[in-house]
Specification:
The structure holds two protein chains of two kinds. By secondary structure, chain A is mainly β. Chain A contains no helices and eleven strands. In chain A, strands 2, 4, 5, 9, 10 and 11 form a six-stranded mixed beta sheet that branches. A five-stranded antiparallel beta sheet of chain A has the order 1-3-8-7-6, with no helix packed on it. Chain B contains no helices and eleven strands. In chain B, the strands form two sheets. In chain B, strands 2, 4, 5, 6, 9, 10 and 11 form a seven-stranded mixed beta sheet that branches. In chain B, strands 1-3-8-7 form a four-stranded antiparallel beta sheet, with no helix packed on it. The chains are: A mainly beta, B mainly beta.
Chain lengths: ~110, ~120
């Protein structure tokens, strides 16, 4: 069974601080996605990374896919209260049903003004 | 474009009762997914449809859960009879292509409470 471990589980920081969230697995994934979920809503896709070593930037968010395609990180620079939410990583099952995403448990981020 | 529509938003039922959820994906999206998200956990795939055919239902508890997508558009997920552990948010998602390079679009979910 493929598992994605996210850390930390909870993170509470002040506005302006930097943070990194990690997503690790012993399995290889075809691609990895990051989602943000707000209370009462479904997850919203932030980015998809496909190539080992790939780095993508989305404004103050930087996403990296590990060289071996087993892990990923999300770095937020100068966090703002609007970044508050549940960050989920999800890996596409390599060799399994295409489109079948395996989700981590998420990192709950709270950014205080 | 309109998003993925789900209804109802909330449902409270007693254990052993039946419940049904409805999902209308984004127009033209061939692939539809139902996920279960228990509080404090990430979503877990229940079933994947490609048009009106089932691609993967290996994690669907088939003794009590059923799902259909008769015309390859909207879908219903049913639980009969419900158990306390079925309390969760049921998320529907759709994508235009098989494979996740293009990402999923999720609906807002149905929050089910079984008492």
């Amino acid at each position: 069974t493929q598992l994605l471990e996210q850390s930390p589980q909870f993170l509470s920081i002040q506005e302006g601080e930097n943070l990194t969230v990690y997503c690790n697995s012993s399995s290889v994934f075809s691609s990895l996605q990051w989602y943000r979920q707000e209370p009462g809503e479904g997850p919203v896709l932030l980015v998809t990374v496909v190539t080992g070593g790939e780095v993508k930037k989305l404004k103050r968010l930087t996403f990296q896919f590990g060289d071996a395609r087993k892990d990923s990180s999300l770095h937020i620079t100068a966090a703002q209260p609007g970044d508050t939410g549940l960050y989920l990583c999800a890996g596409e099952d390599y060799g399994g049903s295409q489109g079948n995403l395996i989700f981590g448990k998420g990192t709950k981020l709270s950014v205080k003004p | 474009e309109a998003g993925v529509a789900q209804s109802p938003r909330y449902k409270i039922i007693e254990k052993r009762q039946s419940v049904a959820f409805w999902c209308n994906p984004i127009s033209g999206h061939a692939t539809l997914y139902w996920y279960q998200q228990i509080l404090g956990q990430g979503p877990k795939l229940l079933i994947q449809f490609q048009n009106n055919g089932v691609v993967d239902d290996s994690q669907l508890p088939k003794d009590r859960f059923s799902a259909e997508r008769l015309k390859g558009v909207d879908s219903t997920l049913k639980i009969q009879p419900a158990k306390l552990e079925d309390s969760a948010v049921y998320l529907c998602a759709s994508s235009s292509l098989t494979g996740t390079a293009y990402g999923y679009t999720f609906g807002s979910g149905t929050r089910l409470t079984v008492v």
